Amino acid sequence: MEKQFENIIIGIDPGTNVMGYALLGVNGKKPELIVMGVLQLGRMEDHYMRLRHIYERVSGVMHRYHRYRSILSPC
After folding, report:
1. For 32-50, what is each residue's pLDDT tens digit?
2. What is the span of the domain harbouring residue 14?
3. H/E segment holding residue 8
4. In the chain, beta strands by DSSP E
């Protein structure tokens, strides 16, 4: 059974060659890493396939953890 959190924060470091993401669970003032990952997209020559891969990974993570707040890294 997955641990329950008051809030879940998803952070995304956008990129079309390398994209990173992480989810933090927060209870009170204590954050805890739930999951993090990196997508290596540089080998994909088709930009539409890169965007599809980004969409599929991010939407899959967001679907699994319903309660989240988002933070985008500044470019």
Report:
1. 999 999 999 888 888 898 8
2. 7-68
3. strand 7-13
4. 7-13, 18-27, 30-40, 69-72
Half-sphere exposure (Cβ direction) of 72: Cα atoms closer than 13 Å: 5
CATH number at residue 52: 3.30.420.10
Name the 3-class secondary structure at 9. Answer: strand
The answer to whether residue 51 sits within a structural domain is yes
pTM over 0.85: no
pLDDT in tens, 2-28: 788 888 888 888 887 899 999 999 999
Q: Domain for residue 15, yes or no?
A: yes
